[in-house]
Amino acid sequence: LVTCAPVLGEGPLGVIERGALAAYGGRITWVGPEADLRDAVEPAPGATEIDAGGRAVLPGLVECHTHLVFAGDRSAEFAARLAGQPYEAGGVRTTVAATRAASDDELRAFAMERLDRFASFGVTTVEAKSGYGLSPEHELRLLRVAASLRHPVEVVRTFMGAHVVPPEHDEQAYAEMLVEMMPTIGNLAEFCDVWIDRGAFGVGSARDILRAAHQAGLGLKVHAEQLEHSGGAVLAASFGAVSADHLEHATEQDADALAAANTVGVLLPGASMMTASPFAPARMLIERGVRVALSTDFNPGTSYSENLQLVIALACSQLHMSVPEAILGVTRHAAAALSREGIVGSLEPRAHANLVILEGISELDLAYHYGVNLVNRTISGGTRFDPPSRCE
Ligand code: NIG
Ligand code: FE
Questions:
Q1: pTM score, two decimals?
Q2: Distance between CA 234 and CA 236 in Å, rounded?
Q3: Which residues line the pocket of ligand 1, CB cutoff 6 A?
Q4: pLDDT (tens digit, 9 = 90+) per residue, 179-204?
Q5: Which of 20, 77, 229, 324 could anchor a disulfide with 12, C-beta 3.0 to 4.6 Å?
C-alpha cells in the first residue's frame, strides 16, 4: 500500500507492505497492516471487500494542470513543428476560434471523453483551466461548462482569461477588462492562472490581474518561465501563489523565491518533449527546496495526452527525478498544487477513498514499464470506476 503519507509507512512514499485500508461514505477511515485490520475495523453491514491480490495500491492520481475544455484540432501546427517551426504562444488563437464556434453541448462532450480517458489512466482529480474563450462572455461559458461536468473524476476549476491577449484588444485594455471581470467569477473558479511569457502577458499586467484575483478570493497560479525567462516565478512567489508551472527557464534565484513562499513547482515534461524545448531543471529546484509536482499540461498545442503515467516515466528519465519523487509529483504534491493536500493524493484517514490498483507488484513499474496503462482498477470516492467502452 503506497500511501504517499510518509508518516504512515516506510520511506518517502509511506509504503506499508501487506497493507489494508477501510473506507466509509467515500472517505478513508483506517490505514494499516492487513494483520491489524480485523481488530481495528468493524465492517458496516453490506460492506464491499476488495482483495488487490498482492498488487500495488496507490492514491488516485492527481492531474493538477490541464486546459480541459476546448474544441478544434492543432495537428497541422504539430506537423509544422516537426518540419522545424518553433512553438509560439500565438497558436492558442486557433483553438480560441474553434472553441468560440462550438456549442456548450459539444464542449461538454469533448471534456467528458477526456475525463474518461484520464480516469482510465488512474486519475481521479483533474484541474481544468478556462483560457480558450478570451472574452468575459466566452471565459465564463467555459467555466460553466466545466462546472456542469457530471463525472466520477473531480474537476477543479481555474480561470485563465489571461492565457494570451485576444486579437481584438491590446494587452493593457484586455488586462483591465480581466481586472473588472474578477468579482463576477464567484464560485465558478477556485484559482486564477496567468501566462507570463513572450507572446502572452508581461509582469506588469500580470501583477494587476493577480492582485484583482487575490482580492476576489481566488487562489493564484502562474504559467512561468516556459518560453523564456520573464520573471513569472518571482512574481508568483511574491503573491504566495499556490503553484508556479512550467519553469523550463527557472534560475536558482527563482527556486529560492518559490521555496521560501512554499509555492509548488509544477513541471510538464510532456510539453518540453512535444515542442522540442528544454526540460525544466527539476534537480536544481528540488535541491533548493521547491516541492515539485508533475502534470501532463493536457492541451491541444503543446501536450495532447491524458496519460499521466507516462509523465512519471518522463520525469524519471528526462528530469532525473527518483521514482518516489515522481510519484509524489502526481499524488501528494499535485494535491498541494490544488490546495488539497491530505484530502486527495494520499491514502490516510479522512482523505477521499480514491485509489488505483496497479497491474504490478510495485510502484516502480510506473516508471519502468512505461508508455502502457498499468491500471487494474480505479476507485473514486469509494466507488469502482469502469471507463465506458467507446467502440460500440
Ligand atoms: O501550458 N503555456 C500556455 N498554455 C499551454 C499551451 C496552450 C496552447 O498552445 O494552446 C501550455 O503549454
Ligand atoms: Fe498549461
A1: 0.97
A2: 5
A3: 67, 91-92, 95, 195, 223, 226, 271, 297, 299-302
A4: 999 999 999 999 999 999 999 999 99
A5: 324
